[in-house]
Amino acid sequence: MVHQDIYQKTILFATAKHHEIGQKVPGTDLPYLVHLSNVTMEIIFASQFSFDFDTGFAVQLALLHDTLEDTDTTFEELSSVFSPRVAEGVLALSKNKSLPKQDQLTDSIERIKLQPKEVWSVKLADRITNLQQPPSHWPLAKISNYHTEAKFILNSLMGGNQYLENRLAAKIVEYKSFNFILHPLLLPFIAFATFHDVLITLHSIHSYIQRVAPRSLR
Length: 218
Ligand code: NI
Hints:
Low-confidence stretches: none
Shape: elongated
Number of strands: 0
CATH topology of the largest domain: Hypothetical protein af1432
Order of helices and strands: HHHHHHHHHHH
Distance between the termini: 92 Å
CATH superfamily of the largest domain: Hypothetical protein af1432
Structural class: mainly alpha
Helix content: 55-70%
Mean pLDDT: 91
Strand content: under 5%
Bound molecules: nickel (II) ion
Number of helices: 11
Largest sheet: none
Radius of gyration: 25 Å
CATH architecture of the largest domain: Orthogonal Bundle
CATH class of the largest domain: Mainly Alpha
């Protein structure tokens, strides 16, 4: 099958699965397909700069990467409709929800590392796509954690795909600007600290004048 036909078959399957459960892009009213097509777009652009890269396989993984985690799709279904190789890749890209939340990403990354480089590439593309301006309701701790996670993904999957690694590294730098939003509750403390500094500075100037200025200036 040519890449365009693979894309057509896979996007219809994935869109229907996410649509069935009414899944939207988090924080918006947009269909989840927008996320899937963004990840796939990253993969298609990267494929032009990647050697030894199975584009058809990577496109399947990109479009299907959240079907096991989010919808009622089963491993057997992916195996028979696509291939066991696709099902294995998507499984590695899915979090194991029975583990404690803080272990789920590390566990998925460890399983991704046992898979072909196309699977690594989809994880990189997924995080590139997700490193956009965070929703306004996200607390700073969550933004900061997302930033740290992105660096962990990049470091763990070094050697997966040079082009996507560079893309993710650039997105991580951009995302830094969202990680330093001043929490309004901190403002009174900063104002107090500044006022305190001003008083200390004035006091030092005063002491200095007392010590060095000629008696007539005091
Ligand atoms: Ni995703």
